[in-house]
């Protein structure tokens, strides 16, 4: 059921929101890890192709980010103010508006996917793998975006367990379907599969996501407590709400776009080192996603608590929530840092068996883990901005961290000194330090405490 987060113990509220969110994302990340494991059984170039597509996809993901961040602030603040009718209206608009935007984006991605893949790699096997995987993901983008909205609607009204259950069930289904669709003979049981190769991994993802959407959407229609949407509401446009959905999160959308664009530029630099380095990028990016789970859990949980408390004008509770999120998320990430620095070769060997990929990946895993620990503090501080709807600092922090710190360093390393790819991985630490410094300055000024978007 929905939960009022404007009262009660803050630590209990934070863990109530964060742990189920982490659980759901952990199962999703487990899928990503297993997905990469199976793709790695095909070839390192298949991993590289999926990694390149993921870089392209995140350039489009900006649209989901804009509306998603806006909806977090709008839903949580209206719910915190006990305006349940408007809360339901915002949820309805979020789902349908995001799906419509995703439909346009998917058409554009399908049209331009091949030239974009060719921009990053000239290896035909890498390009083909990326296309086989990417076309499926692109066609069904509206379903992916709408599914994310059902999760957000539940979390921001204090229901943290249902999204975890739905995400978990979807991830388990995905894991089961992966080898069924990818291989002609299903490994381990020797039964006949569909033999779709890399595209089979995407098909499995599409099916499991459709199941998650139907489940989550059905629950919102059925209603829980004061939260219940209607089919009719999905067909009535609300210009005032839709305008806020596109504008509140716009700075955050610019932030994601600039971050994704910087990743694309970084991918271009790394592509010059060859498909082996691209394969390392594919593995390490999934591992970093796994390590990022505690940060996502505490950030989303904190953003909801902050939004509700700002809506109820309980400023001190909102501020304490941010500080608790910073402490707890960094403690959770420490475990990953320890494992990554003690067993990096074992971790890489789980995904690929090519010695050159493993050798390069060992250093990347170690260095990357420390960047996640630094990010824990920055992400926690920025949860205050997202809960308030004050998203401009997130945009500026990304620009500073990626474009004024990371990429200039990478350009010097690769173009001026022509150093090995090992030195490029240190750029992630440099970027996170710059972002943390900026976030800390803005947080301390306190403008987010007065921000309201209802």
From TrEMBL:
UniProt keyword Membrane, yes or no: yes
Molecular-function GO terms, alphabetical: antiporter activity; xenobiotic transmembrane transporter activity
Compartment annotation: Cell membrane
Residue ranges crossing the lipid bilayer per the database entry: 12-31, 37-60, 95-113, 133-151, 163-182, 194-221, 265-284, 290-310, 322-343, 370-392, 399-417, 423-444
InterPro entries per UniProt: MATE_fam, MATE_MdtK, MdtK-like
A GO CC term assigned to this protein in UniProt: plasma membrane
Membrane topology: Multi-pass membrane protein
Biological process, per Gene Ontology: monoatomic ion transport
Keywords: Antiport, Cell membrane, Ion transport, Membrane, Transmembrane, Transmembrane helix, Transport
Domain of life: Bacteria
Designated name of the protein: Multidrug-efflux transporter
Organism of provenance: Pseudothermotoga lettingae (strain ATCC BAA-301 / DSM 14385 / NBRC 107922 / TMO) (Thermotoga lettingae)
Lineage per the UniProt record: Bacteria, Thermotogati, Thermotogota, Thermotogae, Thermotogales
């Amino acid at each position: 059921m929905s939960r009022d987060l404007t009262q009660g113990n803050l630590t209990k509220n934070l863990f109530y929101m964060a742990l189920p969110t982490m659980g759901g994302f952990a199962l999703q990340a487990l899928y990503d890890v297993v997905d990469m494991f199976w793709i790695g059984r095909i070839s390192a170039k298949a991993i590289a192709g999926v990694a390149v597509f993921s870089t392209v996809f995140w350039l489009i993901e900006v649209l989901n980010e804009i509306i998603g961040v806006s909806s977090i602030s709008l839903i949580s603040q209206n719910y915190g103010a006990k305006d349940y009718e408007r809360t339901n209206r915002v949820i309805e608009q979020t789902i349908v508006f995001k799906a419509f935007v995703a439909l346009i984006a998917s058409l554009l991605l399908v049209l331009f996917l091949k030239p974009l893949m060719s921009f990053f790699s000239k290896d035909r096997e890498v390009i083909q793998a990326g296309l086989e995987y990417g076309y499926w993901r692109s066609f069904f983008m509206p379903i992916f975006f709408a599914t994310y909205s059902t999760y957000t609607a539940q979390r921001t009204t204090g229901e943290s367990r249902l999204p975890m259950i739905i995400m978990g069930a979807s991830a388990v289904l995905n894991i089961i379907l992966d080898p069924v669709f990818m291989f002609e003979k299903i490994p381990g049981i020797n039964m006949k599969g569909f033999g779709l190769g890399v595209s089979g991994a995407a098909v499995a993802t599409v099916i499991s996501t459709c199941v998650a959407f139907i489940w989550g959407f059905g629950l919102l229609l059925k209603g829980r407590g004061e939260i219940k949407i209607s089919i009719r509401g999905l067909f009535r446009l609300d210009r005032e709400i839709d305008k806020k959905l596109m504008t509140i999160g716009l700075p955050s959308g610019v932030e994601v776009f600039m971050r994704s664009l910087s990743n694309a530029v970084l991918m271009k630099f790394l592509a010059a080192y060859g498909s082996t380095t691209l394969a390392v990028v594919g593995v390490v990016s999934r591992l970093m996603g796994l390590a990022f789970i505690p940060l996502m859990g505490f950030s989303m949980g904190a953003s909801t608590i902050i939004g509700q408390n700002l809506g109820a004008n309980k400023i001190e509770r909102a501020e304490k929530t941010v500080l608790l999120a910073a402490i707890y998320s960094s403690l959770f990430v420490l475990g990953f840092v320890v494992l990554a620095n003690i067993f990096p070769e074992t971790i890489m060997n789980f995904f690929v068996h090519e010695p050159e990929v493993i050798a390069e990946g060992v250093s990347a895993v170690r260095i990357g883990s420390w960047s996640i620990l630094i990010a824990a503090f920055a992400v926690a501080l920025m949860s205050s901005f997202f809960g308030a709807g004050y998203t401009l600092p997130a945009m500026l922090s990304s620009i500073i961290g990626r474009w004024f710190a990371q990429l200039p360093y990478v350009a010097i390393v690769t173009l001026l000194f022509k150093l090995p790819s090992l030195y490029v991985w240190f750029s992630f630490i440099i970027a996170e330090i710059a972002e943390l410094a900026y976030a800390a300055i803005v947080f301390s000024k306190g403008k987010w405490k007065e921000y309201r978007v209802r």
